[in-house]
Design a protein that fits this description.
Layout: E1 2-11, E2 14-22, E3 28-32, E4 38-44, E5 50-52, H1 60-66, E6 73-74, E7 80-81, E8 85-88, E9 91-94, E10 103-104, E11 117-122, E12 126-135, E13 146-155, E14 159-168, E15 172-173, E16 177-178, E17 181-182, E18 196-199, E19 203-207, E20 213-219, E21 231-232, H2 234-238, H3 242-246, E22 252-256, E23 265-268, E24 274-280, E25 284-288, E26 298-299, E27 302-303, E28 310-315, E29 330-331, E30 336-347
Antiparallel strand pairs: 1-2, 2-3, 3-4, 4-5, 6-16, 7-10, 8-9, 11-12, 12-13, 13-14, 14-30, 15-29, 17-28, 18-21, 18-23, 19-20, 19-22, 22-25, 23-24, 24-30, 25-28, 26-27
Length: 348
C-alpha cells in the first residue's frame, strides 16, 4: 500500500495538493486538500478493468466554475436550512443565503471551498489522509470555533472509510457529509438510470417546492421511493409521483434509515458488475440522482447532463434545526461530534 502526492493547483496563492491512496489490489482514491474533494476512485469491473467511478475534474478552475459539490465534504451543516436562519438557546443566527434565500451545504465559503491541513499516515493494514480545519466563530453565520477532522482511509479489502470528528468552544450545530457523485459504469460510459439501488428505509421526507422538508415523514409503501427490495433509478425519472416530479423527475430526498452499519445501502451496476455497499453511523441518507445537473460543460471529456451521477449523502436530516421532531444537529460546547461511513467496492 502506498500514498502519492503531487501539486494540483494554487488557491489564493496557496498550493493545493492531490493525494492518491493505492492499496495492494490496485484500487485508488485521489483527493485534494481543497474541500477534501475526492477527484477519482478507480475500482475494477467484473473483467478486472480499473476505471473511475466518481464525477470530478482535473483542474481547480473547473471546480470553481462548474462543480455542484463534486466529491466535497460539505458543512458546517449539510443540506438546506429554511430562510437561512435558526434559533439556539434564544439566539437567532442568520446564515449565508446561497440557495433561493435559503442556506445550502454550509454557505458561500463552506467546508468545500477552503484548504484543509493534511497529514498522511501509513499503517500495516491501511493508509489514510487526515484533514483538519478550524471553522471560526461567526464563519458563514455559525456560532463557535469548531475544530474539524476528516479522515479518508483505504484498506486492502477495497473498503474506503470516511470518519468525521468535531469539537466546538461554544454550543453550535454540525451535520457533515461527503457529496461524491457515483457512477459505477466506469469512466462515465453510461448514465446511472439503470443502476439498481437497495435502501433499508421505510420512510422518506416530504419536500416543499424549494426542496426543503415540510416536516412530514412519508411511507415508502407502494411508491417509487420503496428501495427495500431494490429498484432501478429510472423508476424515479419515469414516475408520476408528485415528489419525483417536484425534484426534477427523480430523487433529491432524505431517507430515514431503518438500520445502521448493516449493509443498509447497496448500489449495483449490472453492465459493469460493480457493486458498492455503504454502511454508516448516520440516521439518514440523502439520495440525489443529479436531475438538475446542468449541461454546458465537460467532465473529463464527457458532456455534463442529467442523471450522470448518484449521490448517497449519509448525514442527519436537512433543516432539522427547524423541526424539533428530527434527530438533533446541535453540538454542545466541548462535546465531540463523530460520524463514520464505509464504502465497500466489489464486482461480480
Amino acid at each position: 500500500m502506498r500514498i502519492l502526492d503531487e501539486k494540483f493547483a494554487e488557491h489564493n496563492g496557496q498550493p493545493v495538493t492531490a493525494y492518491t491512496l493505492i492499496n495492494d489490489q490496485g484500487m485508488e482514491v485521489t483527493a485534494i486538500d481543497y474541500g477534501c474533494i475526492i477527484t477519482k476512485i478507480l475500482v475494477p469491473d467484473r473483467e478486472g478493468r480499473m476505471e473511475n467511478v466518481v464525477l470530478g475534474f482535473d483542474t481547480l478552475e473547473d471546480y470553481y466554475q462548474h462543480s455542484p459539490y463534486f466529491g466535497a465534504v460539505v458543512g458546517r451543516h449539510a443540506g438546506r436550512i429554511a430562510n437561512a436562519e435558526f434559533t439556539l438557546d434564544g439566539n437567532t443566527y442568520q446564515l449565508e443565503k446561497n440557495n433561493n434565500g435559503n442556506h445550502l451545504h454550509g454557505g458561500l465559503q463552506g467546508f468545500d471551498k477552503v484548504i484543509w491541513d493534511t497529514e498522511v499516515k501509513e499503517e500495516t493494514d491501511s493508509i489514510r489522509i487526515e484533514f483538519t480545519y478550524l471553522a471560526r466563530d461567526g464563519e458563514e453565520g455559525y456560532p463557535g470555533n469548531l475544530h474539524m477532522k476528516v479522515v479518508y482511509e483505504l484498506n486492502n479489502q477495497n473498503e474506503f472509510k470516511i470518519s468525521y470528528e468535531g469539537v466546538s468552544d461554544k454550543k453550535t450545530v454540525v451535520n457533515v457529509t461527503n457529496h461524491t457523485y457515483f457512477n459505477l459504469s466506469g469512466d462515465l460510459k453510461e448514465d446511472i438510470l439503470h443502476h439498481t439501488l437497495m435502501l433499508k428505509s421505510s420512510r422518506f421526507l416530504e419536500l416543499d417546492e424549494e426542496l426543503i422538508p415540510t416536516g412530514e415523514l412519508l411511507s415508502v409503501d407502494s411508491t417509487p421511493f420503496d428501495f427495500r427490495s431494490g429498484r432501478k433509478i429510472k423508476d424515479g425519472k419515469e414516475s408520476a409521483h408528485p415528489q419525483n416530479i417536484l425534484a426534477g423527475n427523480g430523487y433529491d430526498h432524505p431517507f430515514l434509515l431503518d438500520e445502521q452499519q448493516n449493509k443498509e445501502i447497496h448500489l449495483f451496476d449490472e453492465e459493469s458488475g460493480r457493486s458498492l455497499v455503504i454502511e454508516t453511523s448516520e440516521p439518514a441518507v440523502v439520495l440525489y440522482t443529479s436531475n438538475q445537473l446542468e449541461a454546458g460543460f465537460s467532465i473529463r471529456g464527457t458532456a455534463s447532463r442529467e442523471y450522470l451521477g448518484i449521490c448517497l449523502e449519509t448525514q442527519g436530516l436537512p433543516d432539522s434545526l427547524n423541526h424539533p421532531q428530527f434527530p438533533s444537529a446541535i453540538l454542545d460546547k466541548d462535546e465531540v461530534y463523530t460520524s463514520q461511513t464505509v464504502y465497500k467496492f466489489s464486482s461480480k
